[in-house]
Amino acid sequence: MLNWQHIRETHLGVHFQDILPPNIKLPMMPSVVIEFTRKAEDPNVETRKLTKIIESDAGITTELLRYVNSSMVGLRNKASSVQQALNLLGIRSVKLFLITTGMKSALSSRQFKLVNLKNFWATNLERALFSREIGRLLGTDSDLAFAASMLQDSLLPVLTNELYKYYVGYAELPEESPLTMTTFEDQTFRWNHSLATAAVMRHWGFPDDLICCILFHHKGLMVLSDAELAKSPIAAVAVSSLLPDPLNQERNGLNRLHKLQSLWPQFDLARIVETVDVQYQELSPGVSPDFPLKHRYEKLLEQLNANAELVAAG
Questions:
Q1: Counting beta carbons within 10 angstroms of the beta carbon of residue 216, is it exposed (0 to 12), middle (13 to 18) or buried (19 or more)?
Q2: Per residue in 26-42, pLDDT tens?
Q3: What is the C-alpha separation between 312 and 147, in angstroms, rounded?
Q4: Which of 129, 158, 120 is CA-nearest to residue 246?
Q5: Tens digits of residue pLDDT in 242-272
Q6: Which domains does the chain have, with CATH numbers?
């Protein structure tokens, strides 16, 4: 079993004030989420106390009940109260849900220059569903993988706004540029959004397993060769981060996932892509992404086949 605290201390070991410029306006996480997260770390906490914390915010209470009764959760019994939701889901699952919901709420009141929030959360949901499938394939914590993938880029809307003149330079790079976003950030700021997001979440008191998944999320396929991390939620999140996104963070990521199939026979990209598209429609009925993941993968296959034919002909 992974020692999450040790991994976090070894690879983070800093406060967010030591990373980000002091003038960055961070999102305001709802106080209910912060209080619940910290109280939930106490193994002796009573669910009655946790229930009262959630019930103090009507919006979060409504979102929790909608979630616990959704087809995604698939519980036989329905919950009509926060207490029942806690009993049915468990404290840990509720904590992960509240953190994700709280971050979406914190960002929803702001306008962003480079990031369209609708597309941003659509991409995150695709990655989260993909990550959950990889987590199941690895036999690891798929719920943690899902939550971490929803949150992995959660600071990017703020960072691209606050440091717009730098990030717009990355956005304007030609498609064939080999530069990834984290490499660009390391060269420009001497930190990247993975490190910054993990540090801020540590400051907010979020759990170490979630922080570690976010900290490593742009390590890509290298995580699969790490004996300690290869079958962990960290690996599931890192693999999912290779999916394309509007900011083009990982160039040729989908192609790298396609090639992974030859090294990992159990990894059936076509099946996973189709599963993700179906689940996306179930969670967001009537709200289709501009380019479904299956469509983008089919386009890649067409391009690869065309390239192979050119090589064979010439």
A1: buried
A2: 899 999 999 999 999 89
A3: 44
A4: 120
A5: 999 999 999 889 999 999 999 999 999 999 9
A6: 26-109 (no CATH), 112-309 (1.10.3210)
- DSSP alpha helix (H) spans, 69-189: 82-89, 91-108, 117-138, 142-151, 156-162, 164-171, 181-189
Q: Whose CA is closest to 247, among 126, 153, 128, 108?
A: 153
Six-digit token string for 225:
């060769």
DSSP summary character for residue 268: -
Six-digit token pair at 22? 């002091």
Helix (H, G, I), strand (E, B) or coil at 80: coil
Tokens 């306008």 map to which residue?
111
pLDDT of 314 reads 65
160 exposure class (CB count in 10 Å sphere: 0-12, 13-18, 19+): buried
The pair phi, psi for residue 74, each rounded to 5°, is 70, 35
